[in-house]
Amino acid sequence: MRFFVAALLVGLPFWGQATDHVSDPTPKYWILFTAKDPNTAPALSAVARHRRTIQHLTVDDTDRPVSSAYLTALSQSGIVPLSRSRWLNAVSARLTVEQVDRVKRLPFVTDVRPIDPNLVISSLNVPVAADEPGQAQLAPVMTQIQAPDFARAGLTGRFVTIGVVDAGFFGADSANALKPIFARQGVRSIRDYVHRDRPGVDLYRSLDAMSDFHGTEVLAAIAGNDLQENRQYGLATDATFYLARSDQGNREYRGEEDNWVAAIEWMDSLGVRLINTSLGYARGMSNPKENYKPVEMDGHTSLISRAAQLAADKKGMLIIVSAGNEGEDRGWRIISTPADAQGVLAVGATNAKYWNRIGYSSIGPEPLPYLKPNVACFSLYGTSLSAPVITGFAACLMQARPDLNNKELMAIIEKSAHLYPYGNNYVGYGVPLASRALALLKNQPLPNTARLVKATGKTIDLVVDTNDPAVSVFRKKDATHVIRQEVVKVVKGKVTLRRDSHEARTTVDLKNEVIEVVWP
Predict the structure, then answer these.
(1) Which residues form the active site (predicted)?
(2) Catalytic residue among 83, 302, 322, 384
(3) Which residue out of 214, 305, 416, 509 is catalytically annotated?
């Protein structure tokens, strides 16, 4: 760990990899290799090995570095690797058309895949002042998820290490909401995978674009606590952090997936279990042959999703990802990658009043055999700020029960959500609630807040216990896929529903109760 900090401070290139000049127009590719050298030692710290042991996870071939023989052969061919991925057994490099053809013929190369330089970044970049990150939208969400319940239990993310992979952290060390973190040296290390020749700490001072505030906002949504104003913005106020910049600000035509994978692997090597990444990749603009298509948001087509799934299955990492902000984009609408990976916790966004899907929040693709997004919570300015709220939620659970593995934590967060078990592809299982999560941690029975009602005709009157004049309703074609959402009035303690054509189920969301209507 000290080696990495020292390299950061003196500005050495990370892990001896080449500096990637982002202005270079030469296309970037993944070069995937055959078998690794079984004699090389796994690239893991003692902390990472210990974490694997206590989680009963093996150290395997994906932990060994890429073969040095392959790297030497590429160098002799004039190829300069940029990022190395031990998980994918691959490197990234900028290649001309001639080089692509030459590399494909190498006996140890299994595939050469373009990293599309024209991907739309699905984070919504709405900068705010560096000393007031997320102020307007985070007060309601803290109430929504029952943050005071964690405070009463003394849960603040203490002893939990969180990795944040984002676009920039400008002004983070001077933001009022983040000063307590830096005062206790809570940020252990920071790396810039975009400008690899810069010291990571330059991210606090370098403003290439206004979206370089983005990571600062995200960090505040996880752990912000403004002592001067007595305002708490995030749940994990006592957590420890590793920060990594993987994306080139708000330049919407950049595909920096290799940087993302490198950042996640770095954090895994240090034993980091919890990751927030409020970035995603959706569609391209200039070269349709190399762009993602909606059908490719399937959890395994993109290499970034494969890496995220591997992190969940083999490395024991809980990766919390923004679902995306394409819900109103008629040409897309669905979640971005890596939110499509089954093993990550994808977070959508709700509105504050009815807790149904806010318009921009991306929808889960219908062909997926599993539910996406997994959960959701309020955020006025993008799923980029709803995901870190749930990251802080997870950190509190990890403090309370450090013995739980990533899949157990993910299950608790889902089961604590207010619509569980009647989730849908608009908001997942809904808003996680601290009171329910704490009960689950203690293996206590939850109150019965879900009921199934079988309709006998085309209309049904439901008696509801709510003081709200109207409630949210999800009309679904099957158990999870929403046809449309609407708000229905409560009249004299009843909600009247009339079945739509092609409607198989209807979810009535009372916030404190969920009613699932099954139509004949």
Answers:
(1) 166, 214, 384
(2) 384
(3) 214
